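Hi all, long-time lurker, first post. I run a small reading group and we've been trying to get comfortable going from sequence to structure in the token notation. Rather than ask abstract questions, I figured I'd post a concrete chain and ask someone more experienced to write out its structure so we can walk through it together at our next meeting. Sequence below, copied exactly:
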Amino acid sequence: MQDRPDPDALLQRIQQEQAQQQRGRLKVFFGACAGVGKTFAMLSAARAAQAQGLPVTIGVVETHGRTDTEALTAHLPRLPLRALPYKDRTLPEFDLDAALAWGAAHPEGLVLLDELAHSNVAGSRHPKRWQDAEELLAAGIDVWSTMNVQHLESLNDIVSGITGIRVWETVPDQFFDAADEVVVVDLPPDELLARLKAGKVYLPQQAERAAANFFRKGNLLALRELALRRTADRVDDEMRAYRRASTTTPEAVWPNREALLACVGTGDNAEKVVRSCARLAAQLDLPWHAVHVETPEQQGQSATLHPQVERTLKIAQQLGAAACAVLPAAQPAQALVRYAREHNLVRVVMGRSTRRWPWQATLAEQVGQLASDLDLLQVGTLVGRAGSTTPADNAKRIASTTPSATRPPFWPGYIAAALACCMAAVVATPLANVLELTNIVMLFLLVVVGVALRFGRGPAIMAAFLGVGFFDFFFVPPRFNFAVSDAQYVVTFAVMLVVALVVGQLTAGLKVQAEAATDREHRVRSLYDMARDLSAALLPEQVAEIGARFITGEFSAGSTLVVADDDNRLQVLPGGTAPVDMAVAQWAFERGEPAGRGTDTLHSSPTLVLPLKAPMRIRGVLVVAMPQGEVPGVEPRRLLQTCASLLAISLERIHYIDVAQKSTVQIESERLRNSLLSAISHDLRTPLASLVGLAESLAMVQPPLPAHQQELTGAIQQSAQRMSALVNNLLDMARLEAGAVQLNKAWQPLEEVVGSALAASAPAIATHRVEVTLPDDLPLLQIDAVLMERVLVNLLENAAKYTPADTTIHISAQPQSDAVALTLTDEGPGLPKGREELLFEKFERGARESATPGVGLGLAICRAIVQAHGGSIRGDTILNAQSQAAGARFTLLLPRGTPPTDLGTDTDTNSDV
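-- Answer (accepted) --
Happy to help. Here is the structure in token form:
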């Protein structure tokens, strides 16, 4: 009977297919390096597609002066390129909007994009060309492109180590793997070098440099191997996806790519099997898996995994096994074959075993009979231990290594089986003259079934033999001896014994499987209950309580949750019942690996520490104290790791809920405050302007006012002007944050802006010296001169307010590669330590309570204006030789553009560019 497909998997596959149908198809022409003919192959295939009626257009193709490649573009339509300014010139770049419009007009169209890893010119919508391709694919447009193996992100460092040249333009592996089709364009190194010498790859001068550096034969061989191996990996992934998507269980292994399966047993030979498989995998450069099949006998002997098996699986992980699994199954051979076919593992490596009975097949023989397509490799036994690998010895070894405190004694089941058979004989004796012998046989079979259900296989076998003996002794004539008067009863005894043994074995096996299924269902239900409770948790303390309840219920163990704050400092949440060693916890948190009890790191610790790995970061650690210092086995460790993952995800969810709530409150507060400030500023602006005008009028009346009245008039005028400046700052801040200010950018010399700012702030800086150092080669900047003057005025007034009189204010500028750095320094007390960035927030001042007038808006306005220009501003404190504050320094970085080569002399030299 075939297994039914998972309905959730089918639904997910249907949804993926529907989403894929709405996207365009990506075809990548993949090669080892430049010159192998990727662009030529792409254009040839495009012309063939065009001949079949498919609409094709060239988005961008780089021919590098190759005439044969250029000839292929003659009959293919091209999209016009977009001209973008870059430094002192204009560069052509792919026009994404034109391609999207063309794709909308041609529903089944194909766009050719050469050089997928290309970096776009600054000012393009996306920094990388593969991102342009992604947008085209999302719009349902098919894309063909080319790329070399050195541009793959995962292979970038490997290629740089081989060639000695670092390639900075890369494509993510996820994008490459998501391509619908990859065409390998391959060329032997000798032919490629011949093409290079003939000038078919680069121009002659470039070809000489390339041959001396990158295009060496050793490099080409290595790159060719990388390209072919990477393509083979991709094809292997596609094959695996196809096998997983198949609705039927694979009937055979496809030996397209070899992989190994190490069979881990309970004998002393298990480690040798794993080590031999690891060496073979390393020699052949193959992946390998390690699997142990846990039979019902082993599950009945011990509730935990065999120590030898657990140790061997840990060794397999350390030796690089791709997967280590424990498979519960009654038939080990069937489980191994099923696992090998599901994972397409061609070779099975197992230890050599001996037959317990002449008619009993070994495990290797059973696997060979079930799967003739698998290659079986048997590892020889260790010297002096050749007889230690039989199932009976393994069972004895399991029993001997099970702790006596946890292993139940074996004899009660056998005593109960004997008593049950005696009870059946006692009950059936008075009925011997009433019931037929066949019905009495049924009573003894019922006893065998009951014993198997309650006590397992061994007592059931004993009950089967005792039942046959009691039936013969007490009920078969002549009664009360073992003599048989009729030979037909021998057949009855044989059939009764066989039926009893088979029924007992099947019943015991079903009991073990039912118990295992019940345990798995209990674990899944417990995890579901914990996940449901965690989804409603709103505080980290609630998460810790839910986790502790789960661990106590499943393992009878104590636990403590240690979480990390925003500064990655560990904090112990209250309510924990496990002792916390902060050194072990810090180690596990920093490295993201388990530590403590049962691990290879700090194993002397009495607790097991598991990192809480969330999708974004590690959220802390989970400390677990197992009862009586037990070491958790493979299955308990896996369950604990699942619990830790759920706790980490819940903590991250709570963190981002808190961030979202704070952001919402902050946004609403800012909106309300801006609205209030805007309203107040508008209402105060008119009366303040009138007050300033009246104060100026009083100062000019004739005849002049007395001296004391003139002094009062001056004080009124200064206070009104200060209040008017404050209101203007409030109004400007509100307008800047609302986006209501439109920049009137023009190409301006920085000297003029600095000069006008000094003139505007002359009254404020009258008691200070100002030194200006501007180099002659400063470039023109595309700025709003009025707003930039406002920035400098605010900085100058701040310097004048917070520095002593007769000190010097320095203004300097320095051109950089992509910006101009404008620096203003003073000789005051500097900026408050640790609050340098906070000073650029609204209503933040250097001192909370200060006699210096102001409300903390000047620097906030400066940052808003500079950021609107695409620049940045920062402040820091200047330190002297004694590491004491010697002043404050503010640095503005204003982006450099590409000014026009001729500004003109007759017409608007200040017009926007």
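A couple of things your group might point at:
Residues 163 and 214 are 6 Å apart (CA to CA).
The two ends are 76 Å apart (CA to CA).
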